[in-house]
Amino acid sequence: MENRKGMMRASLYESLRELMLKKVFEKITIKQICDQTGVIRATFYNYFDDKYDCLNAIVHHDLTEEMLSNPDKDVAKNTIEHALQRVDENRNFYRIAYNVTGQNSFEDMIRVNLQLMFEEYFRHYRKPGYIEQYPDALLSAYYGECLAFVIKQFVFQKDGELTVKQAAAMLLDLMGHSFYDFVTYNG
């Protein structure tokens, strides 16, 4: 039964993804999403509060679901590559979705989902006693911003500029080094 619910939820948000490739998000109605999926409006509201919640489900699925379902210490690199692969496969959708701005902006959805993912990661794997004055929420917001920045750069790059593996390696390199690793001081 749970698997069937997950499949219906995925069908609804994938219908929204398809519609966004044809229409401006603001013009898409719940009825259109339901018609595309072949269900009634009540079914939509069993899974989502509104179309913004449905759009957020796409972000969650593409970028964070894998890591949140299996917060394994060694999965971070694979999770980042998987997220970038999903973005690469859906680049046109992402370019369009970044036009959803305002109170429920697509960019904010990305940031919030990534922050939640990093919070979960820190909850499981943060080194005890290491720079404790910075709480997990602050670190999660910082690293979520880093990954959100790389994703946006990756989405809007000229085709083929960076591969998925190169973008993932860049992010891991940048996150793994401090500002002071990049500068020299002649004192």
Structure description:
This protein is mainly alpha-helical and 187 residues long. The protein has two domains: 1-48, Homeodomain-like (Arc Repressor Mutant, subunit A); 50-181. It contains nine helices and no strands.
Topology:
Blueprint lengths: L1 H19 L9 H8 L3 H7 L3 H19 L5 H15 L1 H7 L8 H20 L10 H20 L8 H12 L12
Helix pairs in contact: 1-2, 1-4, 4-5, 4-7, 5-9, 7-8, 8-9
Provide a quick synopsis of the model:
With 187 residues, the protein is mainly α. The chain has helices spanning 2-20, 30-37, 41-47, 51-69, 75-89, 91-97, 106-125, 136-155, 164-175. The chain has two domains: 1-48, Orthogonal Bundle (Arc Repressor Mutant, subunit A), CATH 1.10.10; 50-181.
Q: Count helical runs.
A: 9
- In whole angstroms, the N-to-C terminal distance is 67 Å
Binned, the helix content reads 55-70%
Mean pLDDT: 91
Structural class: mainly alpha
* Shape by Cα distribution: globular
Strand content: under 5%
Largest sheet: none
> Regions with pLDDT < 50 over 5+ consecutive residues?
none
C-alpha-based Rg, rounded? 18 Å
The H/E string reads: HHHHHHHHH
Give the number of DSSP strands: 0
